[in-house]
Amino acid sequence: MLDTTGDLIAFTLRAAGICGVGQTALAEDSNTVLDLLRMLLGQWRRKRWLVWYLQETSCVATGANSYTIGPGQDFDTARPDKLHAAWCRLMPFAGPNAVDLPLSIIEAHEDWATITIKDLKSIPSAVFYDSSFPVGRLYFWPVPSAAHYEMHLVTKGGLPTYTTLTDPLNLPDEYVEALMWSLCVRTQMSYGLPARPDHVAAMRESVNVVQNANSQIGLLSMPSALGRGGGDISSWVGKGLNRAWTLGGEAVL
Question: Phi and psi dihedrals of 134, rounded to 5?
Answer without folding.
Answer: -90, -5
